[in-house]
Amino acid sequence: MQSEIEVELSMSIFILAYTVGPLFFGRASEVYCRVRLLQISNLWYLAWNLGCGFAQSLAGLFVLLFLAGIGGSAPAVLGGGAIRGTWKFYTLAPVLGPIVGPIAGGFIAEYSTWCWVFWSSSAAAAVIQISACFGCASRIPLHTGNKPGDGNLLSKLGHALVRPFRIFTTQPIITVIALYMGYLFGTTYFMLATFPVIWSKLYSETPGIGGLNYVSIAIGSFRGIALNFFVIDRIYHNLKGKNGDVGRPEFRMPTMFIGSILITIGLFWYGWSVQVRCLQGMQTYTVDSYPTYAASAMATCALLRSLAGFPFPLFAPYLCKNLGSYALCRR
């Protein structure tokens, strides 16, 4: 790659694909087995991500990255509608991904070729694919009352292009949450995009050693997750007890106020993750508010979130050059 914007575009193209996948996976998960959808999407990601390592041109690489990103977007949408009460495990993935990836990728790129960055992640996806191929529970139609062949496939999936936009335009709370999640997500990837500029160019560190600086994000993220879930549970149960032992989705929101304050502190410290505290509160609130259409509601948020995550990394290196690293951290 010849320019910095092309380097950042390789990450942004993958994120941009997250605006396409949720439109279909959100609706499909409300009709079909989520296990099957996760298996199919992972296989889709595996095939195109493997092809990235064989790309012979920059345009071909970008196309393959976009197609791989469509498959990679499925867990972000399907997870919210499937796991419900196991957020502690679900939120580990978005934290581990931006941390483990750059650390491993830095050493792989330093001691091997860039192709192995894609091939190694494809190998991990293959292991997950093999371990997950145990089929969908056959008793699900008995509990839901739906027959596996009911309805027209195109008609059902056609709603995928309508429902997220309808939810976004008719549900004010989803509009606000989606926009705020987009800002946080964009800021997160903006920060991640500045790491190679600061550590490799400013401090002249090798790609492998520079990648170890992502451990600082890991420390802040894991501390934030542990503390956040402790605070969420305490606040939720206290408010639930005061409300006649009846829970409400709004009882998940107080931690959002705490997180919004910590964002400023986190950007100054540059090691405290901006995505953990606020996104967890908004995700749990969204799922609790729309239990029947949780996947579609999450798809709406994922759409805005990914749209914001696409352009932010593109101007990060130029902002770092023009303002300097100190001014960049202050922003």
From TrEMBL:
Q: Which domain of life is it from?
A: Eukaryota
Topology with respect to the bilayer: Multi-pass membrane protein
Name the UniProt key words of this record, in alphabetical order.
Membrane, Transmembrane, Transmembrane helix
One Pfam family it belongs to:
MFS_1
Q: Does the keyword Transport apply?
A: no
Q: Where in the cell is it found?
A: Membrane
Write out the transmembrane intervals. Answer: 7-25, 89-110, 116-137, 173-199, 211-232, 253-272, 292-316
| MF-aspect GO terms | transmembrane transporter activity
A GO cellular component annotation in the UniProt record: membrane
The name under which this protein is listed is Major facilitator superfamily (MFS) profile domain-containing protein
Native organism is Aspergillus tanneri
Upper taxonomic lineage: Eukaryota, Fungi, Dikarya, Ascomycota, Pezizomycotina
